[in-house]
Amino acid sequence: MNPRHLEKIKKCFELGKSGNPNEAATALAMAHKLMRKYGLSEDDIDFIEMGATTTASKIQKKPVAYAVNLGTSIASSFKCEVLLQYSYHGNNFKFIGRKDTAMMSAYAFDVLFRQLKLARKAFLATVHTRTSKQNKTKRADCYCDGWVNSVVRNLDVEELPPEEKERITNYRKHIGSYTEKKAKSRQRKGGSISDYLTGSHDGKNVRVNTPIHGSEGERLCLQ
């Protein structure tokens, strides 16, 4: 299907919302005429704005809780849904929603996850060398929990509107997403409140400024 045809039909539907009854009726009639011509349904038109973007960051098959927390919070902030995508080349988060917000969600996750890994590495450098590998991992995970929770508090996290949730569900059925599913996290026990608070302190100044959907000069700002 030629994308230009879809855009033409979509514009007709937009004109169909006109306050001028005659203009609206003419636009809707033209939209349905073009739909019949190209064999399209209303769902096909609705899905023109939808898309999915996969993160560059690799994710474990059963990701740790802080990774899922970061992914789901970013998705909520951008009014998207996040799934874990499996492949032979590794696992990634896939953000599904409107094309622009799905892309920005994946970008935000990659940038923040990269910052988190650097912060984790710096934290581990402060842990006593005689600490066992297992305890180092537990302490670092506790640090990451604190870091992510601070970042999440700086996000404008909202529940996905019912109409947007339905749109995403229908889009997933439309594209047939069989290799993705909701990510189930695992929480490692261990670490200390001190490790958590250190992470919380280090993450509190990390911010993501969510752009207004459809605004002119739309951009994503990470600090």
Automatic annotation (TrEMBL):
Q: Enumerate the residue ranges of region (Disordered).
A: 178-223
Q: Which residues form the DUF2786 domain?
A: 6-42
| Domain (DUF7168): residue spans on this chain | 55-183
- Quote the Pfam families the UniProt record gives: DUF2786 (PF10979), DUF7168 (PF23771)
Entry coiled-coil feature ranges: none
Q: Which InterPro entries match?
A: DUF2786, DUF7168, Phage_B3_Orf5
Recorded protein name is Uncharacterized phage protein
Protein's organism: Aliivibrio wodanis
